[in-house]
Amino acid sequence: MRGTIQADISGQLSESYDSNILFADPLDITGETASFDFGAIKGIRKGYYFDGGAIFHIQASAVADYRMHAVHDALVKLHFCIKGGRKSGIPVSNRHFYVPAQHHNIYYFTAGEGYIDFKAGQSMEFIDICLDADYVERLCAIHQHAFSALLEALRSQQFYQLNTTPMLITPGISQQLTQILHCNTSRQLKRAIFDNKMAGLMLLQLEQAQVKKHLPSFTTAEDLEKLEAARNLLILHHHAPPSLQQLARKVGINDNKLKKGFREVYHNTVMGYLTDYKMGLALEMLSSGEHSISDVCYQLGYKSVAHFSRLFKKKCNMNPSQVKRQ
């Protein structure tokens, strides 16, 4: 993926560079940092390339009104505005976007030129995850139904946005994004874990958009809050989770509505969701090399190493011992 960014201040071209220069190692999760100073705007740009895309984490401040132009290939962009709010657009198609601080969205842009506007005195921080269409198709292969609209846009090369208005960055999305930016594990396993987290991040964004666009048939906005509270309790007490009945009582919802809510909103059963979460933790703990299989088993609340190993193999397609040998 190649792109050229040009700084345009009052119509004057001041600088351009090939963004591929900054990043060499396709598996360097920590990336590199480069400072920039275009006169009206200065800041720090951190990121890295990998097979399938690139991630850019930019912190900048402007002393004058400023428009930055970016020429790019066709790409899927996961945009997260952390601070300051970002106004951007694609002039040729008359599309303009504003993403407030602490909001996000997913877009597909065909090849062309876009812009980002800065206002005098503004400080901005944002993260852009830019993905090739082929990589996104591979990433979404096991979730084709969920991502059908995005995949159709890629095949027809039509503009796509996940939601018509930006969505608030939830704690779950923030945590997943942080884990992607700091994917610190063995080189052999890094890519598999990285891809898994990237797909998980997109699913979290998709789930939020589905809830935002329409309430599931079973519930009200109040019930959705209770459902989210139930999920948070499961994660908090994953080592010793409450029973389905206890969980329903704790959040003030009946058993059937809780089960139906998990299927419609999280596309899983209550206990299936918990198991998937715990197996994700197990993979991270084992790949770090700091925990034995039995340690991971008991810390996650399993009483039998054999039972834990069977679950792990079913979910991760490998035995825990295979992870330890990597």
UniProtKB/TrEMBL annotation:
Pfam families: HTH_18. Keywords: DNA-binding, Transcription, Transcription regulation. InterPro entries: Homeodomain-like_sf, HTH_AraC, HTH_AraC-typ_CS, PchR_regulatory_protein. Coiled coil: none annotated. GO terms for molecular function: DNA-binding transcription factor activity; sequence-specific DNA binding. Residues 228-326 form the HTH araC/xylS-type domain. The keyword Transcription applies. This is AraC-type DNA-binding protein. It comes from Chitinophaga arvensicola.
